[in-house]
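Q: Got a minute? One more chain.
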Amino acid sequence: VQLQASGGGLVQAGGSTRLSCATSRFDFSNYAMAWWRQAPGKEREFVAAVNWQNTGKHYADAVKGRATISRDDVTRTVELRMNNLKPDDTAVYYCAADLQNDRGLVRAIPLRAYHYVYWGQGTLVTVSS
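A: Always. Here it is, folded:
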């Protein structure tokens, strides 16, 4: 199983970023996909998630209105676009996957980190003030 996050870097406050997560070796179309982030000295926190059917999306209050998560089942990728970035958005961003449709048994979209079985290596986003 591979989840490869990319797109991080240094961004000025007020700017935008687009993160991408390329995946392989698992049944992507049946998995909920999410982005989490971890700032230095802080716990990992939820950012956004999209369900397996691409019909439901959830966002953390901290990014609501500034973030858009999307998935492409053909390319097996999930993206996170964020605008109006703030210094508080500085963190390592991780993509994660959780089996949501298990042979017809569908679970609610997971919003807890421990639900996610596959994690990428993370990509650093630094927002300068």
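A: The mean pLDDT is 96.
Q: Perfect, thanks.
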